[in-house]
Amino acid sequence: MPRKVLLITADQWRGDALGFLGHPAARTPTLDALAADGVAFTRHFTPSAPCGPARATLLTGLYPFIHRSVRNGAPLDARHANLALEARRAGLDPVLFGYTDSSADPRAMAPEDPRLRSFEGVLPGFRLEASLNESQLTGWLTELAKKGYELPEAPFRIYAQAGSPPVMARFSRGPAIYAAEDGDTAYIADRFLDFIRLRRREDWFAHVVFLRPHPPMIAPAPYNDAVSVADLPPVRRMSSREEEAGSHPFLAEWLNEQAHPDYFESQVDVHAVPEEDRAAMRAVYFGLIAEVDAQLGRIVARLKASGEWDETLVIFTADHGEMLGDHWCWGKGGWFDPAFHIPLIVRDPEAPRGARGRRVGALTESVDILPTVLGWIGREAPRDASGASLAPWLRGETPPRWRAAATWEFDFRNPATRRYERALGIGPEECVLGVWREARWKYVHFPSLPPRLYDLEADPGELRDLASAPEMAGVVARCAGRLLSHRMLHAERSFADALLTERGVVCGAEPRATPEGLYAAP
């Protein structure tokens, strides 16, 4: 029987923004049905952000402190294995629809190679079938031109309402200048559907990447008005932006960075517009989610009609989340859950019927996807992979031991601007934070800035920092120790497990050590 893999990622999709999880503004009937026919992992996190680092982590299966592509534009070392290259070794031809935001390794390239001028490159191993990202809109714009659209001189201005200025004093949720059936989301779905049209009896491996609900907050009709502001849940934040900024020096500077129309690609300063405008932006975000879900519905319908649905491993996830006004923040970064909690739904066509519709609350991470996919196509994951296969959960089992915490890091150094270095008076290596997130406790560690500690049971919105409370000293010390142990246990070990002896090279093959407390019963 043919074996097919469909790995779908959306960009900037919050982990709570799903209808079956009860979100009042999420219109996701296709994903709700997929969750009912597969397994939904409801506490799934990315170990890194923004786009480039998150996708490097997802596709290499390595934590960011191993692959070190920690910022958009930070090169990804060519020596690392990845999902596409490993799939090729299994005899598949991985094709890409969209983008991977992979920054090329410059060491084997000429200084003038154009791939060194953008972080929006293609991960080695993928064959690009259709490109669409923030700087590569040519394929989609060509289709629009063929359909008779009058295109703007600046390509990215396609994301604007007719007649709108480059910078607006107020946000408008008017429709895009293109119809939904001609939009960027439909374009990617169309190209994938064209690809599979004549491949009914073939194996294939497709990575389908949607740009949305990534900003700008411009949606075609009817999705611009699909969600009412009245359906939005309240944002979780302190009483004022000033109070939030005063709670931590990093947060103060991040909020300063956001006070510019270019930051969120929204044509407005998100902190200067009235509250009603920010609510309208949030509503359009959920309209874009509804648009992606509708195009996913077309894909599912075609796979079912062709009989390929029961031959295809289907995975839906995102690179990272979106703050969407929580803590007065927009975009992705920092340490708060909304930026790192992402959706994950997996449908294994070979899973027993009794496992369908399962919701797994164990802590999972995007590094788990590589070993899951490789196992399904019959290939072992590289021995240095950071994650664990989700196959037992997909079969309806519960592993006897599983991770007790999710971890992530956010690197905010910038070799080009030195923004945070100058504002905070710290060096580049100090511009990083690490998170240890258990079911109850969440600890945030900085090399030089104050730590944070939250009791997620009592304070799910992460509004009360407990790190300086004397009675919390033991919790802080324990979490800091676990975070240190986690990094030590997952350090790269390619040659650390090798030894030159009289008999030649001896390599260890043992699995990674997991001391009591780091992994526990889920």
How does the SSE layout of this entry go?
Elements: E1 4-11, H1 29-37, E2 39-41, E3 44-45, H2 51-60, H3 64-67, H4 83-89, E4 94-98, E5 127-131, H5 138-146, H6 184-196, E6 204-213, H7 241-245, H8 249-258, H9 275-306, E7 312-318, H10 337-340, E8 344-347, E9 358-360, E10 364-365, H11 369-376, H12 391-394, E11 402-403, E12 406-411, H13 419-424, E13 432-437, E14 441-445, E15 452-455, H14 473-489, E16 498-501, E17 504-507, E18 519-520
Parallel strand pairs: 1-6, 1-7, 2-9, 3-10, 4-5, 4-6
Antiparallel strand pairs: 2-8, 7-8, 11-18, 12-13, 13-14, 14-15, 16-17
Helix pairs in contact: 6-9
Describe the overall structure.
Pfam families: Sulfatase (PF00884). Residues 4-378 form the Sulfatase N-terminal domain. GO terms for molecular function: metal ion binding; sulfuric ester hydrolase activity. One of its GO terms (cellular component) is cytoplasm. The mean pLDDT is 94. The strands form five sheets. Strands 5-4-6-1-7-8-2-9 form an eight-stranded mixed sheet, with helices on both faces. A four-stranded antiparallel sheet has the order 12-13-14-15, covered by helices on one side. Strands 3-10 form a two-stranded parallel ribbon. Helix 6 runs parallel beside helix 9 (275-306). The chain has 522 residues and is of the alpha/beta class. It has helices at 29-37, 51-60, 64-67, 83-89, 138-146, 184-196, 241-245, 249-258, 275-306, 337-340, 369-376, 391-394, 419-424, 473-489, and strands at 4-11, 39-41, 44-45, 94-98, 127-131, 204-213, 312-318, 344-347, 358-360, 364-365, 402-403, 406-411, 432-437, 441-445, 452-455, 498-501, 504-507, 519-520. The chain folds into two domains: 4-12 and 47-340, Alkaline Phosphatase, subunit A, CATH 3.40.720.10; 408-520, Arylsulfatase, C-terminal domain (2-Layer Sandwich), CATH 3.30.1120. It contains 14 helices and 18 strands.
